[in-house]
Amino acid sequence: MLEVQNLSMRFGGLLAVDQVTLDVQEHEIVSIIGPNGAGKTTVFNCISGFYKPTGGKILFEGGEIQGKPDHKISRLGMVRTFQHVRLFGQMTVVENLLVAQHRHLNTNLLAGLIKTPDYREREQKSLDRAAYWLERVGLMELANREAGNLAYGQQRRLEIARCMVTEPKLLMLDEPAAGLNPAETKDLNQLIISLKEDYNVSVLLIEHDMSLVMDISDRITVINQGRPLAAGTPDEVRNNDDVIKAYLGEA
Amino acid sequence: MQDLLYFFQQLINGLTIGSAYALIAIGYTMVYGIIGMINFAHGEVYMIGAYTALIAITGLTAFGIAWLPLVLIVALICAVIVSSSMGWAVERVAYRPVRGRHRLIPLISAIGMSIFLQNYVHLAQGSRNIGFPALMDGGFQFGSADSFQMSLSYMQITIFITTLICMTLLSLFISRSRIGRACRAVSQDLRMANLLGIDTNRIISATFVIGASLAAVAGLLLGMYYGSVDPLFGFIAGLKAFTAAVLGGIGSIPGAMLGGLILGVAESMTSGYLSGEYKDVVSFSLLILILLFKPTGLLGKPEVEKI
Amino acid sequence: MATPNFKHALFCAIVTIVIAYPILGLNLVAESTRVIVEGADTTTVISVFAAALVVFLFQLFRDRIMASLGGLPKLNPFADREHMPESKRARLESWVLTGIVVLALFWPFFVSRGSVDLATLVLIYIMLALGLNVVVGLAGLLDLGYVAFYAVGAYTFALLSQYAGVSFWMALPIGACLAALFGLVLGFPVLRLRGDYLAIVTLGFGEIIRILLNNWTALTGGPNGIGGIPDPTLFGMEFGRRVKEEGNTSFHDTFGIAYSSEHKVIFLYLIALILAVITALIIRRFMRMPVGRAWEALREDEIAARSLGLSRTAVKLSAFTIGAFFAGFAGTVFASKQGFISPESFVFLESAIILAIVVLGGMGSQLGVVLAAIAVTILPELAREFSDFRMLVFGAAMVLMMVWRPQGLMPMRRTHIQLRRQE
């Protein structure tokens, strides 16, 4: 479904990402791990279109997407979260979910002004979808709170819900467990597995803590200093000498 | 021959105005380099410098002091003291409390400050423009052709030389002094500099004070050059200087100099060959075009969007 | 008392004197051909020093003053009150608004002509501020050249009536659409810019338009402006003493009442009122539609909005265009009210006033903007002495609001949305 081939990204003299290759198949959770500063987020930024990669190819469902503007890539059905949560802080929780569904809404200005039946129907549908996901992530009671006032763990969950209401094919999560306590992390892992099992979404995950992703990933790619170090199933990666060296070396 | 002389005359006029623009532009570019905001009230600080200089000159004349170098130096010192105090106060009152908030907030606060200062001077000194006494008449005359004579006035020479001195002092200050080095560190990474024990608040204040001092120098020079001041004196000049800063690459000090000179020449060529009415249109259009096609300016560094 | 505090306080006091005394205390006066300096009267000088003393004392006891300010009971007696249930509050608000509009409909028949004229001006400012509120308050784009679109609306009507004899009702949509078109064409390239660059570019653009109006004498009459702009008609009835246009009748003849120049003033007021209400209603709808939410999302976090598939250009452009549209609307009404327009009416100061209204009222808040428009326009009229200080006060207010209450006097309230529980 997603194929990244020999992706490179250069900032001035710094080669942040060097020949990274990875792929995500349907119904699969793939993780990118690596020490801090390994270039994981840069890979994400290239895939999601925030950066224009300086080399390599990115294919989504067979079409090349490298260099396309970010909002167009997102519309193809791949949405992401951010390492530091990015919500619309002064808007309410439910408004955050409605913004994300603009593609499902009738955005014709006139239709909205006179509230055509079609407009109302779509608006109601997106409200229902928002309600469904709020309940799914346990934020229903807070629907009309300002998103900026939520607790950190709740903000993380809202960010994932905001991605899910867009009905994506591929969900990209950038260190979703950062700043969560162990119980919250466990819930999160269950949520991610359920996204794959129950909603048929593929997940591409970034994490710098290896142990978190071992249980839930189908495959793992390890990158270090911008270069791919190893790839394979969690067991293969766990036993890879280079990986052990890189991680022990860092520790 | 006459055409050529006319062209050189416009060039001289443009470089004169341009070097004064560059002095004002330093204030924009340094503040932007350090806290990433446009100091909208900078044009007003410059205007206040011009007023103070005029008050000082008039006051000295009233006491019968007329030795030109003394008058100019006293006026310069007064203007620099008042303007730099103003720059310091503006930062303390309108910018520091809102630093780090949503980007719209410091911007509106700065515009409010600019409106406030404009009207402060307007109320205190009246809205009419007031004439600067002609202290420095005459100049060198060059080859004349037909009815046209090219000239380089003493005033223009003074503007060039003063700008040159100020720029040299500034470069020395930035590269040699402790505060100058701290300035460079803060403009690289404010938070890191703070962690390393640099008092960033002081450095930001220093930036405003330096920018305001140079603006005051420009205020004296341009006030004398144009021969009058009014409360709106700073508004357009501020816009022009900002254009110069962006043209050269905002954040870059040599860029401000280069941008000022280019803008000055572009403007005086427009007045000379098209019409004086359209010189503002030309400089604003220049600003818009640069921002659209090369927002980093001629000597600026590209910014990488951080996520 | 700690020494650094004392030093700092002294320094602040000296700075106060340095920045206040030369400008306030020494006045330049032109005397025939010479300029002389005159000392200001004693009151001014004393106030400068008094101000320095206040600054000194404040800085000296700053910590204690701040602490005791924090301990003061809330100034707003309603602050601690239980919040009304959301549905009740919304209903109350719509009743209040309807009441105000009904009152405003009948009010002009009982007051003087001057008051009605002023009220029309207030309504024009309300339209402008509501439009700018979309751009600044909702979309977070600082537009300092907003007055340019106002000028486009006004000049469109003036020129169309002069050269093509187009009536007010025809010119109203044309002016608004042309202003919107200007917004679209100009917005397209500049909206990619960062916020502060956008502010300065729009400022420059506003100036360009004004300079062009001033110098394109053949078309716009330059600084002399354009006069003889016709009044609006009511179903072909004119409000002048004599009918100017073939085929029209006059208002007083049709109804068999005596001619009064007040009819026209009231009629214009009512038109402005209706247009202002329409503006408010349309924008209110927009705010609850996908487009309105997209504006706010972009203001809150542009990167997140883009990651969800919102096109930055499209969303910003829609805000810019819609804002310009209502400015054009207001411009047409303004031209008709004045009967004469010149570039003088479209200076940066106007943009600044409209921005001050939006900022004071509370960015995004419609009721706040309406109240602020009323206050900002009427206060200088009520107190003549105040009108000199008007812009000084606005400038200071903008700074103070940003420092203490950036959400404005009446911050925007979020609408509550009722959700159906899903299985």
From TrEMBL, chain A:
Keywords: Amino-acid transport, ATP-binding, Nucleotide-binding, Transport. Residues 2-250 form the ABC transporter domain. GO terms for molecular function: ATP binding; ATP hydrolysis activity; L-isoleucine transmembrane transporter activity; L-phenylalanine transmembrane transporter activity; L-valine transmembrane transporter activity. InterPro entries: AAA+_ATPase (IPR003593), ABC_AA/LPS_Transport (IPR051120), ABC_transporter-like_ATP-bd (IPR003439), ABC_transporter-like_CS (IPR017871), BCA_ABC_TP_C (IPR032823), P-loop_NTPase (IPR027417). GO terms for biological process: D-alanine transmembrane transport; L-alanine transport; L-isoleucine import across plasma membrane; L-valine import across plasma membrane. It comes from the Bacteria. It holds the Pfam family ABC_tran. The keyword ATP-binding applies. GO terms for cellular component: plasma membrane. The keyword ATP-binding applies. SMART domains: AAA. NCBIfam families: PRK11300.1 (NF008449). Belongs to the ABC transporter superfamily. This is High-affinity branched-chain amino acid ABC transporter ATP-binding protein LivG. It comes from Marinobacter fuscus. The lineage of its organism: Bacteria, Pseudomonadati, Pseudomonadota, Gammaproteobacteria, Pseudomonadales. The gene is livG.
UniProtKB/TrEMBL annotation, chain B:
The keyword Transmembrane helix applies. PANTHER family: BRANCHED-CHAIN AMINO ACID TRANSPORT SYSTEM PERMEASE PROTEIN LIVH, HIGH-AFFINITY BRANCHED-CHAIN AMINO ACID TRANSPORT SYSTEM PERMEASE PROTEIN LIVH. This is High-affinity branched-chain amino acid ABC transporter permease LivH. It is found in: Cell inner membrane. Belongs to the binding-protein-dependent transport system permease family. LivHM subfamily. CDD domains: TM_PBP1_LivH_like. Its main location: membrane. GO terms for cellular component: plasma membrane. It is a multi-pass membrane protein. One of its GO terms (biological process) is D-alanine transmembrane transport. It comes from Marinobacter fuscus. One of its GO terms (molecular function) is L-valine transmembrane transporter activity. The chain crosses the membrane at residues 20-38, 45-65, 71-90, 102-121, 154-174, 203-226. The keyword Isomerase does not apply.
UniProtKB/TrEMBL annotation, chain C:
It is found in: Cell inner membrane. GO terms for molecular function: branched-chain amino acid transmembrane transporter activity. The chain crosses the membrane at residues 9-30, 42-61, 92-110, 122-142, 147-164, 170-190, 197-213, 265-283, 314-334, 346-379, 391-407. Pfam families: BPD_transp_2, DUF3382. Keywords: Cell membrane, Membrane, Transmembrane, Transmembrane helix. Its main location: membrane. The keyword Ribosomal protein does not apply. InterPro entries: ABC_transp_permease, LivHM_N, LivM-like. The keyword Ribosomal protein does not apply. GO terms for cellular component: plasma membrane. It is a multi-pass membrane protein. Residues 5-107 form the High-affinity branched-chain amino acid transport system permease LivHM N-terminal domain. This is High-affinity branched-chain amino acid ABC transporter permease LivM. The lineage of its organism: Bacteria, Pseudomonadati, Pseudomonadota, Gammaproteobacteria, Pseudomonadales.
